[in-house]
Amino acid sequence: MSKIYLKPEEMPKKWYNILADLPTPMDPPISPFTGKPVTFDEMKAIFPPHLIEQEMSDKKWIDIPDEVLEVLSIWRPSPLIRAKRLEEVLGTTAKIYYKYEGVSPAGSHKPNTAVAQAYYNKINGIKRLTTETGAGQWGSALSLACKMFDIACRVYMVKVSYHQKPYRKSFMRLFGAEVIPSPSDITNAGREVLKRNPNSNGSLGIAISEAVEEAAQRSDTNYALGSVLNHVLLHQTVIGLEAIKQFELVGDYPDKIYASCGGGSNFGGIAFPFLEKMLKGDKKTEAIAVEPASCPTLTKGVFEYDYGDEAKLTPIMKMYTLGHDFEPPAIHAGGLRYHGDSPIVSYLYNKGLIGAEAVHQSEVFEAGILFAQTEAIVPAPESSHAIAAAIKEAKRCKETGESKTILFCLSGHGFFDMGSYDAYLDGKLSDFEYPEEAIKESLKNLPNVSLK
Amino acid sequence: MSKIYLKPEEMPKKWYNILADLPTPMDPPISPFTGKPVTFDEMKAIFPPHLIEQEMSDKKWIDIPDEVLEVLSIWRPSPLIRAKRLEEVLGTTAKIYYKYEGVSPAGSHKPNTAVAQAYYNKINGIKRLTTETGAGQWGSALSLACKMFDIACRVYMVKVSYHQKPYRKSFMRLFGAEVIPSPSDITNAGREVLKRNPNSNGSLGIAISEAVEEAAQRSDTNYALGSVLNHVLLHQTVIGLEAIKQFELVGDYPDKIYASCGGGSNFGGIAFPFLEKMLKGDKKTEAIAVEPASCPTLTKGVFEYDYGDEAKLTPIMKMYTLGHDFEPPAIHAGGLRYHGDSPIVSYLYNKGLIGAEAVHQSEVFEAGILFAQTEAIVPAPESSHAIAAAIKEAKRCKETGESKTILFCLSGHGFFDMGSYDAYLDGKLSDFEYPEEAIKESLKNLPNVSLK
Known about the structure:
tryptophan biosynthesis (chains A, B), four-stranded parallel beta sheet, EC 4.2.1.20 (chains A, B), L-serine hydro-lyase (adding indole, L-tryptophan-forming) activity (chains A, B), Rossmann fold, 15 strands
């Protein structure tokens, strides 16, 4: 059979914390206000204690609360699928599998962490969560999770997306969230931007600043982030943990894993449990983070301390970055337009423990359409980055005759992204050049951090 | 567990043909050209022999070809889910289950028959299929099915939907179909309409006429219909057959089954296998077809011979109808805006073997949103008709203390219908009055059919 299912009771009961297995400690996040490593108490202004503990924990396995498992079980375990039709069309000697996270109610892997975050906030007496969203996947996931635990949710949505992706906004409203186009006039950060530029289209950086500001000021309100941070990647490891069990069922194991990488939660989610086996010398797998050529954080960025947002409100983190004021071109995979990357993913890449690859928008859409027409699932443009890289590898295997086992994470479906497929089919999507000058410029503005 | 899965190998291998079990024969379809029962040869102009045989067959169980099973297995068996969160919120003493067909690649139950139709046409040497689509569910399903069997597909899409539902059009394009706004200038039927009214918004009736005309004229091209006909309902019985096995797994059985009903394929698909048990005196179930109050075919129509389309090209069928030139108000569940109903469903209703119920648009959306917020699935507005009726029954059970088992078919997801949720949340959706005068008017134009 090409679909490999786990039974509901086979869902992982613990998250895998890769922090416990790193060969050397990671550099700590630095407070933008004190210039010193961020303390537990500083983080308590916007995060609940459980999540801060997880952010810093060196415990290898962390229990998933029953209440979280119960909501995850609405769509988990997600299927692992052998892409037999795609293999046939490619005529490859490789085997291609994909883990399909688009079965979640919000259509992507994002609810895996949104549910956990909503739960921990709920049990800490928090009544409201704020967050930002660009393309809308994360905002949708958090809206859903908050509704499941009956807490309020306010989403600052980048203004240009608010208008361009009305269906994502509708989805969030349907699940009871309040969606505010950002920059707004209800925060200082927003008002500052509007004063400078009343017609601002907004950016993820501005939206983060607005959401963080509101959460910091209200005791009943916390902030939630959908990627980058350690606890977020931790919650996503259910993806890889399930995949390992599914490969056991068919007696196979991936030689190569491809996952699209913006902030790193999708990549970490599928790859870390396989890296666990590699780090302890068990089984070898090459995990490759796939990013857009127009926002090439890992492949063209630098490994330095940088801000997580434009307004410099978030901790300064050691990561691959293109500079916090780098503005990536408006590619159609909005979820991958981030200047930085998860500190853990950055660390692993810097140590040579994982690989990275950049792909162009046109090959991404070409791969996505080939995938849809053979496997009958419309992929999100973000996910199609992984598909493109996997297909490239499968074609290489065809040439060399290798019978490698390839796994990629199909992180979401593209039902809310049909407009970008239209643009591609109408010949209106072009590849952006590698924005060399812009990156050079923005890299001049990295913060000056001394760990002494 | 609230999700009840079947193993891939437990997929039904035969369709159930309810024609074999009807207490008396049905009145035959009449040719609009000869005034006599339609012959096998007349149908061959637009349908392949296997489908015509199925349309007229009295064989109770019909084998599903392996090639069809293989494609269906991309998403089947579909889950049966106990709506525990919804039950809790309602505080009902009833148990509520739903069969979820939105897991199909096109997002609804429609591919169950589209795949079979594409297959039979393919093995009969047909190179192209034409069809019509209104809301786009059927066009999406057929586009997908044609791509799976590598035949071309042309979809005449009602012009107003072509412009209002651009994502549905994109979906069809993505799967390689050609989408033509109807009325078009490439058929006589289309040109006739445009001559009378150059700004025509189109209608399902016009689009059917265009698709049928093209198929009748080209020997390499056939026509495919997504509902109403016997063979279409036959292919949908996999839904109910799976549900029966799933209820066996949990030792339960539905007292009441609710399914939205436009042409009848969703209703027939889930209900007929349960009716099989009832017709042979085994187990009793009350199956209720749920329709919009603004297009109340079963509850307010007449059981008479009528045309299937406005242009009077299709066979004249004995069915509940509001008159072939009745134009239903523009409700947001486009899939239920049809003047007639499946002849089998009509027959069963007329014999008192099934029930029918009409619900208003506002209660439909209210129910859909409650369902989404508890069960975390955004339902298609069509499916929400069944949800509304099921919720009404669950509330009734709460009052009486009855512990009935309720099943409804969640025929599709609503990711392409977010605009209508916005309209509802913005207070822009109103209930249409029962269009009594319009129906009275259109019922004057029924054809004069004599079976002598």
